[in-house]
Specification:
This protein is of the alpha/beta class. The chain has five helices and twelve strands. A six-stranded antiparallel beta sheet has the order 4-3-6-1-2-5, with helices on one face. It starts with a strand and ends with a strand.
């Protein structure tokens, strides 16, 4: 088993009482990783100091060498999460354990001189499923990616639209990137004043009456179809099921073991 390594907590940026960006500084420096990968974070807990590990996607881009970022929701139900409860009790300077990055939820980049993948890159995030995309989008901006990229993020509350200011700024740069946030509980008091899109993630993809283009397709003036679009989806398993229910009838093929060709890559968590 890979040995545990140590980092120190630099800061916790609270977005809400239950959502925060954690920044940690590994003692041996930030390890190399690909945008979209995840790491196990651990804490020594209990009277016997047993290490509790949980996987979290890295939300900082590989080019950020001063620290690692993690976009974390505190678990309250059905019972308080063991690790997240302890994470929220930690203060700047406290130790956090980690193991090297893993995972294949990454965007293939062309080799030097190779042809650019012409497909629209459709990134679909529900809640904290935004984390790997925060890394991917900022990395692609750094390498001046020439592909068309659309990032859709659905959250319950405006305060949970993590990295919103950064994505808005990136959208204003001279590249083909669109940021599409949506709020699923527009009537909630905390969302008062929100005048942007509303609805769950899958509602952006649902076809209109008599098979008309979806809301998102009309807004982007495009059509999502296999061969022209590749989708990455990250979020709770229910969100994944709902999104796939909209994509599969269009002919999108989900990545499966042994399948070389696919139109949708999925990263699911929770029940």
């Amino acid at each position: 088993m890979t040995r545990a390594r140590t980092a120190r907590l630099l800061e916790r940026e609270d977005l809400s009482p239950s959502l925060a960006i954690f920044r940690i500084e590994p003692e041996d420096g930030v390890p190399p990783f690909r945008a979209g990968q995840w790491m196990n974070l651990g804490l020594e807990l209990g009277p016997r100091n047993e290490i509790v590990w949980r996987p979290y996607s890295i939300s900082s881009p590989p080019e950020e060498r001063a620290h690692l970022e993690f976009y974390v929701r505190r678990v309250w139900k059905p019972v308080p999460g063991v690790l997240t409860t302890a994470l929220w009790e930690r203060r700047a300077g406290d130790a956090i354990l980690w193991r090297p990055p893993k995972g294949h939820f990454t965007v293939d980049e062309p080799e030097p001189g190779a042809e650019l993948d012409p497909r629209l890159l459709l990134l679909l995030a529900g809640g904290t499923g935004l984390a790997p995309f925060a890394s991917i989008v900022r990395h692609l901006a750094h390498v001046e990616c020439e592909r068309a990229i659309v990032l859709c993020h659905a959250a319950s509350y405006v305060e949970e639209l993590g990295y919103r200011e950064q994505f808005t700024r990136l959208q204003q740069r001279d590249w083909d990137f669109r940021y599409v946030p949506t709020i699923s509980r527009p009537a909630h008091e905390s969302n008062r004043g929100w005048s942007g899109r509303t609805g769950r993630l899958e509602s952006l993809l649902a076809p209109g009456p008599t098979g008309a283009p979806s809301l998102l397709e009309r807004e982007l003036d495009t059509t999502f179809r296999p061969g022209a679009t590749v989708a990455y989806v990250c979020g709770y398993s229910e969100t994944i099921r709902n999104v796939m229910a909209e994509l599969k009838p269009r002919g999108f093929r989900e990545k499966r073991a042994g399948r070389a060709e696919y139109d949708v890559l999925v990263d699911s968590f929770g029940q």
